[in-house]
Task: inverse folding
């Protein structure tokens, strides 16, 4: 069973943007993405199974909101293993934040959530992934749809947008639809409430699928076509669409958005979930 | 650079047999994760066809029925995703790229040293001809004895199991020959041009 607080990137899959959106690359002459030794500066509990590691990374080259890093752990006998984690912090912050969910029997996630302490070192390299990424200069409107720890790369985009000027933000109206199992498992709950309260051009909607809190008046079901139709921007506004979460959610949302009339090429997805055992 | 010891990390050691089958940085999974950059396309078989395009501008096309009539083989291989999971002994059914190229040659399609695979949804990936010939690559239409599900690339995906799995492009519809290597979709976004898991060629600049 493994990992990824929202891993990213390719498998034998994909679509979207395709060759036309791929910037030219300089394949063989480029320098490798270097491994760096980060130091844990701070640990922020988020939910019972999720915490954020705030890392000092020497010579971090910068990243775009939505990108991820590879993390490598080394045991004292030399055994190594790697996983990918989305970056939660916006490009504006000097430190890198990774928000990690402990998965059942997760080899790396259980170490990062239960064992790692402030002052420990953590080897990583990045940033990685250029497709599931967004910058204020890309414009809007933006719609983010997330499930569970799939919020992490989306949160980097929300934070990046929040760091822009009022004028820039007004030009990029944004909506988040976020699915969580329960109120206590809603990652970044207070920060999302603060961001939405401070910004009339940001709409945040939650659905709580299993255990809504007493008095909950919001959605209480898995995201479906009707919910997307209520929350999505008009097709004519040509929004940037980002969907991240477990595969069934991403499949439902991506197909639902296409059924609403959005161009499939405008729907960027990142799928993850426990894999294995 | 020597990796620092991760204080307190023990890890889940694979047994020796598993370890020998795992390329560096990979772990074994038993399910089949789905990763895609966009929505899953659903092309009806009646509208599906496959095109092989030559350097000379000529193209050969196969309808679904014509594709089905080509000789199929069953392939059992380990697969390795750049997102770190590997899955052992996956069983596929499909048409060897050798067969496609032979059939294309009979229709006047000249091969060239590189190919670009083009897919529904716009995805592309580049490969040297040498990596898809000699019994190393297939157009796979079956998985585990059943038609390949759409989320895993059905009706037909490329299968190049000796390279990272992003090279095994889902929903493949065309292969074009080129005289030089050009980056496809992920290769233009920082991923390695070839992607050999045993050399850990994940990203641009990896050895």
Result:
């Amino acid at each position: 069973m493994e990992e990824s607080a929202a891993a990213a990137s390719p498998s034998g899959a994909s679509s979207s943007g395709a060759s036309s959106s791929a910037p030219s690359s300089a394949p063989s002459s480029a320098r490798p993405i270097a491994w760096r030794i980060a130091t844990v500066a701070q640990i922020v509990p988020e939910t019972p199974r999720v915490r954020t590691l705030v890392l000092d990374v020497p010579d971090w080259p910068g990243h775009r909101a939505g990108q991820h890093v590879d993390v490598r752990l080394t045991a004292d006998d030399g055994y190594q293993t790697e996983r990918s984690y989305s970056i939660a912090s916006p490009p504006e912050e000097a430190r890198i934040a990774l928000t990690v969910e402990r998965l059942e029997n997760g080899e790396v996630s259980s170490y990062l959530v239960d064992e790692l302490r402030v002052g420990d070192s953590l080897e990583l390299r990045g940033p990685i992934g250029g497709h599931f990424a967004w910058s204020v200069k890309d414009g809007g409107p933006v719609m983010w749809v997330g499930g569970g720890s799939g919020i992490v790369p989306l949160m980097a985009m929300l934070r990046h947008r929040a760091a822009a000027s009022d004028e820039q933000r007004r030009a990029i109206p944004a909506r988040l639809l976020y699915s969580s199992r329960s109120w206590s498992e809603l990652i970044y709950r207070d920060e999302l409430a603060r961001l939405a309260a401070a910004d009339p051009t940001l709409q945040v909607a939650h659905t709580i699928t299993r255990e809504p809190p007493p008095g909950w008046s919001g959605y209480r079901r898995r995201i479906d076509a009707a919910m997307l139709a209520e929350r999505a921007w008009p097709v004519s506004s040509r929004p940037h669409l980002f969907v991240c979460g477990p595969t069934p959610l991403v499949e439902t949302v991506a197909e639902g958005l296409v059924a609403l009339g959005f161009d499939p090429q405008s729907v960027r997805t990142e799928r993850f979930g426990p894999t294995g055992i | 650079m020597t990796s620092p010891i991760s204080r307190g990390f023990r890890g889940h050691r694979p047994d020796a047999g598993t370890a020998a089958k795992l390329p560096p940085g990979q772990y074994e999974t038993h399910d089949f994760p789905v990763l895609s950059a966009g929505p899953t396309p659903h092309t009806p078989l009646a509208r599906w066809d496959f095109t092989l395009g030559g350097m000379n501008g000529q193209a050969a096309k196969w309808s679904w029925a014509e594709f089905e009539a080509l000789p199929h083989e069953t392939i059992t291989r380990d697969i390795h995703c750049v997102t770190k999971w590997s899955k052992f002994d996956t069983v596929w059914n499909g048409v060897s790229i050798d067969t496609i190229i032979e059939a294309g040659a009979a229709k006047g399609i000249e091969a060239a040293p590189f190919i670009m695979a083009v897919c529904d949804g716009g995805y592309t990936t580049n490969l040297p001809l040498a990596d898809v010939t000699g019994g190393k690559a297939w157009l796979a239409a079956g998985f585990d004895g059943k038609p390949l599900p759409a989320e895993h690339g059905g009706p037909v995906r490329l299968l190049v199991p000796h390279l990272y799995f992003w090279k095994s492009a889902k929903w493949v519809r065309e292969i074009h020959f080129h005289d030089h290597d050009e980056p496809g979709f992920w290769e233009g976004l920082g991923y390695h041009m070839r992607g050999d898991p045993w050399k850990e060629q994940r990203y641009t600049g990896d050895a």
